[in-house]
Amino acid sequence: MRMNRLKEAFRQQLPVVNGWLAIPSGYSAEIAGHQGYDAITVDMQHGMIDFSNALSMLQAISCTPAVPLARVACNDPAQIMRLLDAGAWGIICPMISSAEQARQFVSACRYPPLGTRSFGPARALLYGGKDYPQYANGEILTLAMIETREGLANLDAILDTEGLDGVFIGPNDLSLTLTGSASAESQHPDMLAAIELVLSRSRAHGKVAGIFCTSGDAAAARLAQGFQLVTPANDVMQLGRAAREAIAATLGKSAPTRGVSGY
User: Please, what are the averages of pLDDT over each run of 10 residues along the chain (263 residues)?
Assistant: First the structure.
């Protein structure tokens, strides 16, 4: 089976830079996959992407050096299993707020006896190899998103979930629930304390800590802070930023700072 390079990177405590796609295009997915990202996530929660789009995007990413991941819309075993069968090498699951939700998520990603994933790897066999069923339980990456007060309160129990590789902070939702305002780079004391809590408890449990960021500079700061997996904005944010900078350069002006805030 094709080994999951992200898991090896985490074992060696190397940083992982993760691309994030909200635009439903196999072509743009292929372009992103050749830019140097360690992984590319197909976003089926807030991206404009259905399963047919996701399949073509996973196929495109598979032709690049990046590891294909997917964020599901919710903790739905059927969608999780279908994306794994389509060749996602890891799943990011939003709104995990309890140990039971974390167990349900992980169970959908693991074949029996470790979980309840139904057998039918389909395209995963093409990407991973004919021995995929024997090794998939150990290679598929599972990241639970921490985005709620309940998730923070149950953080240790979530991190203690057998088979969960780590957690991924959804900063806008977490900021919204803690401060009343969605802000991916919030400096509110409650948000700063929550992020430090996730980092410290992840270290204590030997689990991965990841986070979505608004830029490369913000992602670099998160790596320095101790996160192992960072996403330096998504394709929509990067496209808008590049367009504004090109227009400003053309007209000899400073690029406007306002734009899509991301998630």
Answer: 97 97 98 98 98 98 98 98 98 98 98 98 97 98 98 98 98 98 97 98 98 98 98 98 95 69 45
Report d(CA 129, CA 119) in Å as an integer.
Answer: 15
Active site residue 46: yes
What tokens appear for 64 in the block? 């690049």
Residue pair 178/149 in contact (Cβ under 8 Å)? The answer is yes
Q: What region does 58 belong to: left with phi over 0, alpha with psi -120 to 50, or beta?
A: alpha
Q: Is the pTM of this model over 0.85?
A: yes
Q: Which of 34, 46, 188, 205 is catalytic?
A: 46
Handedness of CA 231, 233, 236, 241 (dihedral sign): negative
Task: Find out whether 107 and 137 touch, Cβ atoms under 8 Å.
Answer: no
